[in-house]
Amino acid sequence: MTSQEQRPEGQAQHELPPAPPAARKAFGDSLPAVERYAELLADAGVRRGLLGPREVPRLWERHLLNCVVLSEAVPEDVTVCDVGSGAGLPGIPLALVRPDLKITLLEPLLRRTTFLGEVVELLGLDHVTVMRGRAEEVLGALPPVHVVTARAVAPLDRLAGWGVPLLRPYGEMVALKGDTAQEEVKGARDALHKLGVVETTVEQIGHGVVDPPSTIVRARVGESPGGVRFAARRAKAAKAARPSGRNRGGRRRR
Asked: Which residues share a beta bridge with 172?
C-alpha cells in the first residue's frame, strides 16, 4: 500500500512532515498510531482522492491536530456518530485518544468506507464501527447517540437536519466550523429550533495545541431530537424494527 511505485508522480512520502511537538502533547501514547494514520492519509488517501496532494505538508496542523482537540468537547463513555466522516476526520483522531467512546463513522461513499474499514482494522480500533449510508437513511437503523460530530460537511442548517435527528434526548451535535460560525448560527436559528435544539453556542477549543484555536458549534437538543417531524419518523422506524406479536407460538385463544 505504501510502496513508492504506487504513489503518483510528485507525491513522495517524505512530503509528510514529522509530527510536531504539539502532536506529542495532544496524542500522548497514541502518537505512533496517529503517525501511521497520517502516512495512510498522505499515501493511499491521496491516491484514492480522499485528500488533496497539497494538504499533505499541512496534514498535522490543519487536519489531525485541528480534529483531535474535539476530544475536549466530548464527555466520557458516550456513543458518537461522525457524520460525513470522509477520510476519518474528525472520527479517527478522536478514536485514537478516546478508547472510552463507541464511535460510528458514517459515510455514504463506498471508496471512503473501504478506506475507513482498512484504517480501523489496521489500527485495531475495536471501539469504532464503519457504516455506509446517509444520515437520513440510517435513522432507526442506527441507535440514537449521545454526540454527533462533523467537520466541513455542509452549512449548519443543512448539517443539523442530518445530524440532530440521530441524537438521543438531551444529546448534542458538535461541529467543527471556521470563522463564519457565528453567522451560520444566526442564519440557522429557526431551522435549529424546529429540529428541537434548545441551546446553541460557539466555542474555541485546543488552546495551546492549535493556533488559532479550533472553533466548534455545539447544538444541544431537548427531549425530542429532530422535532415533531423526526419524532414521527423515528417511532415508525422503531415499530418496523420490533418483531411482530403474531405467531409467537402457544395456543390461540378462541
From this structure: 147, 220
Q: How far apart are CA 11 and CA 16, in angstroms?
A: 10
In 65-144, beta strands by DSSP E: 79-83, 102-107, 128-132
Q: Where are the beta strands (DSSP E) in the chain?
A: 79-83, 102-107, 128-132, 145-151, 167-177, 197-205, 214-221
Query: Does the predicted TM-score (pTM) go above 0.90?
Result: no
pLDDT at 230: 76
Q: At what angle do helices 31-40 and 110-123 cross, to 10 degrees?
A: 150
Tell me the mean pLDDT in the region 73-82.
98
164-179: per-residue pLDDT in tens?
999 999 999 999 999 8
Q: Which three cell numbers stand for residue 94?
A: 478522536
Q: Are the CB atoms for 148 and 163 separated by under 8 Å? A: yes
Specify the pairing of strand 145-151 against strand 128-132: unpaired
pLDDT tens digits for range 141-157? 999 999 999 997 789 99
Task: Examine the pLDDT at 2 and tell me if it is beyond 50.
Answer: no
- CA pair distance 155, 177, nearest whole angstrom: 9
Side-chain-facing half-sphere of 64: CA atoms under 13 Å = 32
Whole-number Cα distances in Å, 243 to 110, 144, 251 = 31, 19, 19
pLDDT at 198: 97
Residues 6+ apart with CB under 8 A from 54: none
Virtual torsion, Cα 82, 26, 35, 8, nearest 10 deg: 60
Cβ–Cβ under 8 Å, residues 41 and 81: no
